UniProtKB/TrEMBL annotation:
Organism: Kribbella sp. HUAS MG21
Metal-binding keyword on record: yes
UniProt cross-references to InterPro entries, sorted A to Z: FAH (IPR051121), Fumarylacetoacetase-like_C (IPR011234), Fumarylacetoacetase_C_sf (IPR036663)
Protein name: Fumarylacetoacetate hydrolase family protein
GO biological process: carboxylic acid metabolic process
Keywords: Hydrolase, Metal-binding
Family the UniProt entry places it in: Belongs to the FAH family.
Length: 278
């Protein structure tokens, strides 16, 4: 199933997308659906792309993220981290983003050259936790996933380098992370290691990879993240970006006002966002 948030009658409502129809649910948002179970259908409306909103807005904690989870991406940036190079990590690298980064699947990315001169794109597959767990075994990890969706972890590379080598500030600028366009339930998606992920800027393919290229697969990420740390329904985890980022290119290329960024995957749909001065 595909779960969505839509604009309807002046408010955002959760629903299920079925062909050209959205079945509206008797709930406040998809966080409530994930935590409390799927409620009754209260109405059906025609589906139009322009009514889609970010599937998740309300979080229990910051957005959870994975860095360096494609080795080709890790290697392409070697020597380009401005003195912050490290050896290949033996375990997944995790960080967080503030929740106010989230925008909808077709909203503008809030670009501001006064904040950063190095705006970069990072197409990612994200997942939503559906069941509470701590110290989750690898073999049980995928049972804790409610669904999958797309994100673009738009980053400000100069801010990322400027704050002691940690990434929170350079990843948490308001209204910069497209999310959606819907959440595909885990049972419908199937194997999360069989997704083709792409990022295009102004029609040019910049990133093109399979999730099979991940350094640490989805089950390992969940298991490692939950070690000593409780994951709860509604938690959002980004699983890393592949090679092709602007900061690693020769010459470097960063997002500019007016650019159109498309994030797409064969099983998850498409985000389409214009870079616009805030």
């Amino acid at each position: 199933m595909k779960y969505v948030m839509v604009e309807y009658a002046g408010s955002e409502r959760p629903g299920v997308l079925e062909g050209d129809t959205v079945s509206l649910l008797d709930a406040t948002d998809l966080t409530e659906v994930i935590t409390a179970g799927v409620p009754a259908v209260v109405d059906k409306i025609p589906y139009r792309e322009e009514i889609l909103r970010a599937p998740l807005r309300r979080f229990r904690r910051d957005i959870l993220c994975t860095g360096w989870n494609y080795w080709d991406h890790f290697e392409e940036s070697r020597g380009k981290r401005e003195g912050q190079d490290v050896d290949r990590p033996e375990h997944p690298t995790f960080f967080t983003k503030g929740p106010d980064v989230v925008i909808g699947p077709y909203d503008d990315i809030a670009w501001d050259p006064a904040i950063s001169a190095k705006w970069d794109y990072e197409a990612e597959v994200a997942l939503v936790i559906g069941k509470t767990g701590k110290n989750i075994a690898v073999e049980d990890a995928l049972d804790h996933v409610w669904g999958y969706l797309l994100a673009n972890d738009v980053s400000q590379r100069d801010l990322q380098r400027a704050h002691g080598g940690q990434w929170l500030k350079g990843k948490s600028i308001d209204a910069t992370m497209p999310l959606g366009p819907w959440i595909v339930t885990a049972d419908e998606l199937g194997d999360p290691q069989d997704i083709r992920l792409q990022c295009l800027v102004n029609g040019e393919v910049r990133q093109d990879a399979s999730t099979r290229q991940m350094a640490f697969d989805v089950a390992t990420l969940i298991s490692e993240l939950s070690f000593g740390m409780t994951l709860r329904p509604g938690d959002l985890l980004l699983t890393g970006t592949p090679a092709g980022i602007g900061n690693a290119r020769e010459p470097q290329v960063f997002l500019q006002e007016g650019d159109v960024v498309v994030t797409r995957a064969d099983k998850l749909g498409e985000l389409r966002n214009r870079v616009a001065r805030r």
